[in-house]
Amino acid sequence: MDALIIGAGVIGLATAWRAAGRGLAVTVVDPAPASGASYAGAGMITPISELSYGEEPLMHLGIASRDRYAGFVAELEQLTGMTTDYRADGLLQVAFDADDLALIDDLRRFQESVGVRAEALTGRECRRLEPMLAPSVRGGLLAPDDGAIDPRRLCAALLDAVERSGGTIVRTRVTEIIMERDAAAGVRLAGGEELRAGQVVLAAGSWTGDLKGLPPRTLPEIRPVKGQILRLRTRAPFLTRSTRGMVRGSPIYLVPRSDGEVVIGATQEELGFDTTVTAGGLWELLRDARELVPGVTELEFAEVIAGLRPGSPDNAPVLGPLGPPGLHIASGHFRGGVLLAPITGDIMAELLATGRVPAAAMPFTPERFGRAGDR
Asked: H-type helices in the chain, by residue range?
């Protein structure tokens, strides 16, 4: 085969689909496809709401990916006949009190300085858009170009699209990278079998570094960052668009689905590979959600889950060659895996098909952490 991709989350599947579309023979290996961070995530397509000073390159990558989403989803849904619940109806960011509003005002000024479109709103204007918001909401911002998607439906469609495009899904665990003559040559599976390929992509999220056979200091550290998520359900209209809030300095978001589900998240905890759902984590989510949208406590409980986001040393994605010929990485997307799936798929497919790193990926190659031999 031409390319072997380790990991069937949204990043690995988008890469496989786009690479298969370039005519490459592709195999994806994962013991439980679409069951990790992609399964737990809320699916916000919001490149500017979490923007921080110094992250302008990441913002531009996110905007470029967001702007590809409509075409990406249209092509995917036409191929598979499946729906993804993609919406491009904007993101409303709101402030609970005056201090929170000052933080949002700082974000607005920063957005304006880098040319990002966002509309400042009063508390009354926020409630006109979302009547369920609390009377105490002081104001906010509307990012009209942002949106959301259901990651579970998206990954299900991508799995189908990979196979329809000629790719293969192998549902088992990779235990080792096979290196021959200092180049990647394939992988060894949990049962001892070998799969051979001209190129190997590490796209296993938080588990990207959990493989034998890699030359020392090849990988930058990819760490797990735990996030607890709560899912509720309603039969009556509740929210019309994704709503992100600041409540006494703490971030909270609520993402409505077309089927009546409302996703509330997410905590951010550096606890290794722990995926325990805790009473404290859920209490914090419900407490802050209730401050912004009091009616949330009347909704039906559906699910709680904890996922592990893959964080790189600078919390930006790591995309491109790792040093040894034929060995590549597409990981470290942190909170932006769903947002960055379309552009990551295109970047990695271009690299696999031509050997060239596209210009959009240059700020995010592994080389920014030093050469492989120095890590």
From this structure: 10-21, 37-40, 56-66, 69-80, 98-113, 123-129, 151-164, 279-292, 337-354
Sign of CA dihedral 32, 33, 36, 41: negative
pLDDT at 147 over 70: yes
What is the rounded distance in angstroms from the CA atom of residue 270 to the CA atom of residue 246? 21
Angle between helices 69-80 and 337-354 (to 10 degrees): 80
> Does 375 have pLDDT greater than 70?
no
Domain boundaries defined on the chain:
3-44+152-220+313-374, 91-144+223-311
| DSSP symbol at 358 | P
pLDDT band of 211, cuts 50, 70, 90: confident
What is the homologous superfamily of the domain 3-44+152-220+313-374 according to CATH? FAD/NAD(P)-binding domain (3.50.50.60)
Judged against a pLDDT cut of 60, whether residue 372 lies above it is answered with no
pLDDT tens per residue, range 19-77: 999 999 999 999 999 999 999 999 999 998 776 777 889 999 999 999 999 999 999 99
3-state SS string over 213-281? CCCCCCCCCCEEEEEEEEEEECCCCCCCCEEEEEECCEEEEEEECCCCEEEEECCCECCCCCCCCCHHH
Q: What is the pLDDT of residue 199?
A: 98
How many angstroms from the chain centroid is the CA of residue 118?
22
Helices and strands (H and E) in the chain: how many: 9, 19
Question: What percentage of the chain has pLDDT greater than the value 90?
Answer: 89
Residue with tokens 């990207």: 208
pLDDT of residue 374: 59
Q: Which CATH architecture has domain 91-144+223-311?
A: 2-Layer Sandwich (3.30)
For the chain, what is the largest distance between any 2 Cα atoms, rounded to a whole number of angstroms? 67
